[in-house]
Design a protein that fits this description.
The protein has nine helices and seven strands, in the order E-H-E-H-H-H-H-E-H-E-H-E-E-H-E-H. By secondary structure, the chain is an alpha/beta fold. The two termini are 19 Å apart.
Length: 284
């Protein structure tokens, strides 16, 4: 098969509260639109399993996973509520919510399923719109992200297939969680193009962040200034992506494509149009 569409029914329930900007109704609307346009057929849709605890612990600490589990209770204990801030799961951008662990595990499972479909040869491409939670750190949630599905999928590929993985992140926010998890790993190369951290969360992703130890030289960042438009964005992306691919020679590419570099996104400051989202996948 040339492509599969990975979707877990639980993905719609990844919802922090009624007023939170991370609204998973976009998944339902996208699926409805694709089906109405006859671009998505039932045989393309794959329902994944939930990620196992072992898979979560391949990129997250035991203490953090334990915190997520306990804060997933409909009525967490006072002790855990007091500890929520320590794990990035308090009343900020990533507040805890009921069944958080189970629902977030389903999203991680979706990205692992997509990775396995490609690596096993079942499909040439795999798309998982419920994934891309790239801000979650090994021991802390952040930026709407509880578990880092992209990092878990990359680790799965490493452990099961012993492959070299290139991670490309075109979200307007720096892909910090994935970068830091693999910062010392020479078998995972990360490339993120994003709005400069001088003006936007998470405030990282500078040119000087190059990796450490054996991983030095396998981390690439391209911060762009506010009001960057299509031509400049694409020129930067194409030139760097081609050089990184030639330099690293990956066995597989895992990519994250948040659409928030668009001029109408309310939380960022770039002035790109849909053109970059037509051109960029062709390059990858």
């Amino acid at each position: 098969m040339d492509a599969i569409f990975v979707h877990h029914p639980e993905a719609i329930r990844y919802k922090f509260n009624e007023h939170h900007p991370f609204n998973q109704n976009r998944l339902r609307l996208t699926i409805d639109l694709l089906q109405a346009a006859n671009a998505l057929q039932p045989h393309h849709i794959v329902i994944p399993r939930e990620a196992s605890e072992e898979e979560l612990l391949s990129v997250h600490t035991v203490a953090y996973v334990n915190a997520v589990k306990n804060l997933s209770d409909p009525a967490p204990s006072t002790d855990w509520i007091l500890q929520a801030e320590k794990y990035g799961l308090s009343s900020g951008d990533t507040p805890f919510f009921p069944e958080m662990h189970t629902i977030a595990s389903a999203l991680v499972g979706g990205s692992i399923e997509a990775a396995d479909a490609v690596m096993s040869g079942r499909s040439r491409h795999a798309l998982h719109l419920g994934g891309g939670l790239h801000h979650a750190l090994s021991g802390r949630g952040a930026g709407f992200c509880v578990y880092n599905d992209a990092a878990a999928a990359i680790r799965y590929i490493q452990q099961r297939y012993h492959a070299r993985v290139l991670y490309i992140d075109t979200d307007v926010h720096h892909g910090d969680g994935v970068q830091w998890i693999f910062y010392t790993d020479p078998d995972v190369c990360t490339f993120s193009i994003h709005e400069t951290g001088k003006h936007l969360f998470p405030g990282t992703g500078e040119l000087t962040e190059r990796g450490e130890g054996l991983g030095f030289g396998y981390c690439f960042n391209m911060p762009v200034e506010p009001y960057t438009e299509d031509q400049s964005w694409m020129e930067n992306f194409q030139e760097i992506a081609e050089q990184v691919i030639a330099h690293f020679k990956p066995d597989i590419i895992v990519s994250q494509h948040g659409c928030d570099a668009h001029v109408l996104d309310p939380l960022s400051h770039l002035h790109c149009s849909m053109d970059i989202y037509h051109q960029m996948p062709k390059l990858i």
